[in-house]
Design goal:
By secondary structure, this protein is mostly helical. The chain folds into two domains: about 80 residues, no CATH class; about 100 residues, no CATH class. It is elongated.
Length: about 210
């Protein structure tokens, strides 16, 4: 039994009153199968199915599905009465009978879940950023703009933050070297080549 079949089975077991059509169940399962691992147990499958139900009420969805099926059945009867069947040796390709409103709803679920993932990644980056001893040295008015430079689509957010640390370290060293060449244009602590936060803030604000 593949993942899609397992999800469909758990959906039917969890929501027996939701009289969804086979096509609708298949459409929902197809959307959810990428969210579970191949070896997911019933508990993991139930969590994904229940989360989906939070976004779209399966029982309410079933009522709308019933209404669509009734309309389609009545239309089919009318068409059969008006047009007698013809012998056609060429089979028609399978049609996607999923209603447009259902497709839109499933797309909305995907968008909401993607938003949750993005928010979670943003929180992770903010945590990494705040714990970085190097990036703590950034001027306060620059931290937000540097934080926004992290690519949230990246699979390795720690590497993204590490890249900012490297860049900031090199930038500070460049300012310190410039101070040496300029004969002390920047204010420095006696005996050290570090650029003061005030000087760094002033220069970075003009970048």
């Amino acid at each position: 039994m593949n993942k899609r079949q397992k999800i469909a089975g758990r959906l039917k077991a969890l929501f027996p009153k939701a009289n969804l059509s086979t096509k609708m169940i298949d459409a929902i399962a197809a959307k959810l199968e990428s969210k579970v691992s191949d070896d997911a147990d019933d508990a993991a499958l139930d969590e994904v199915v229940n989360q989906a139900n939070d976004f779209m009420d399966f029982e309410a969805l079933a009522k709308e599905d019933d209404r669509i099926r009734t309309l389609e059945a009545n239309q089919k009867k009318g068409d059969e009465g008006a047009n007698p069947p013809k012998d056609d040796p060429t089979p028609e390709p399978p049609k996607d009978d999923t209603p447009e409103w259902a497709k839109a709803l499933l797309s909305k679920v995907d968008a909401l879940e993607k938003g949750k993932i993005t928010e979670s990644k943003a929180n992770t980056v903010a945590d990494l950023f705040s714990k970085s001893e190097i990036l703590k040295g950034l001027p306060e008015n620059q931290k937000q703009s540097w934080l926004k430079r992290v690519n949230l689509e990246s699979e390795d957010l720690a590497a993204e933050v590490a890249g900012l640390e490297t860049e900031y370290t090199e930038l500070k060293q460049s300012f310190a070297d410039s101070a040496d060449l300029a004969g002390g244009t920047f204010n420095r602590t006696e005996g050290r080549t570090a650029v003061s936060d005030a000087d760094l803030n002033a220069v970075m604000s003009n970048l």
